[in-house]
Specification:
Blueprint lengths: L1 H25 L4 E3 L10 E5 L3 E6 L4 E5 L8 H27 L10 H38 L9 E3 L1 H22 L27
Antiparallel strand pairs: 1-2, 1-5, 2-3, 3-4
Helix pairs in contact: 1-2, 1-3, 1-4, 2-3, 3-4
Pfam family, one: PMP22_Claudin
Protein name: Claudin
GO cellular component, one term: bicellular tight junction
Length: about 210
């Protein structure tokens, strides 16, 4: 029962992490314009994501523009896109594999060993997906931080971390934690020892044995 509860907890955490990775990938707030300066126009807020850039006016109106050409994008942005998409696809595969190996499902009930291996394999896939998302978000965040502290970057063009980055970090952590729980939910086979041999009991002594 304990391993089943740990398995269910791991799947829920990994599934929530996978959903968070999808949300983070789709959000345009990967970096937002910084207002730490003197000559800053606060009439609009600028956001940039993996797929589009947006500007929110002080009236609340939001205008977004999708990036025109894939070939014109920076190589770092294309690599971040690829890592996040790979994390989403791996998470999708991990969901199906882990569901097949869940104890509460009736799939593969005849072979419990293969069923446990499927759950562990699903956990490994979730861990790889979480690592992929963690590398992508950390890489992107590192670029934003380096550009922010670069003295040659104009003050009015500096960006800070957006909310999508924080969601991505949290989602990657959930996917890693859930995958680890799924890998640890497989109970270890107990070591079988040969049955202990009983010692022969001594026959009760009678008075006839002694002179």
């Amino acid at each position: 029962m304990a391993s089943g509860g740990l398995q269910l907890l791991g799947f829920v955490l990994a599934f929530l992490g996978w959903l968070g990775i999808i949300i983070s990938t789709a959000m345009p707030q990967w970096k937002m314009a910084s207002y730490a300066g003197d000559n800053i126009v606060t009439a609009q807020a600028l956001y940039e994501g993996l797929w589009m850039s947006c500007a929110m006016q002080s009236t609340g109106q939001i205008q977004c523009k999708v990036y025109d050409s894939l070939l014109k994008l920076e190589g770092n942005l294309q690599a971040t896109r690829a890592l996040m998409v790979a994390a989403i696809l791996l998470g999708l595969v991990g969901v199906f594999v882990a569901v097949t190996g869940m104890k509460c499902m009736k799939c593969m009930e005849d072979d419990q060993v293969k069923k446990m291996r499927m759950a562990v394999f699903g956990g490994v896939i979730f861990i790889i997906a979480g690592l992929s998302a963690l590398v992508a978000t950390s890489w992107y965040g590192n670029r934003v931080a380096r550009a922010f502290y670069d003295p040659f970057t104009p003050v009015n063009t500096r960006f800070e971390f957006g909310s999508a980055l924080f969601i991505g970090w949290a989602a990657a952590s959930l996917a890693l934690l859930g995958g680890a729980f799924l890998c640890c939910s497989c109970p270890r086979s107990e070591t079988s020892y040969p049955p202990s041999r009983g010692y022969p009991k001594n026959a009760p002594s009678t008075g006839k044995d002694y002179v």
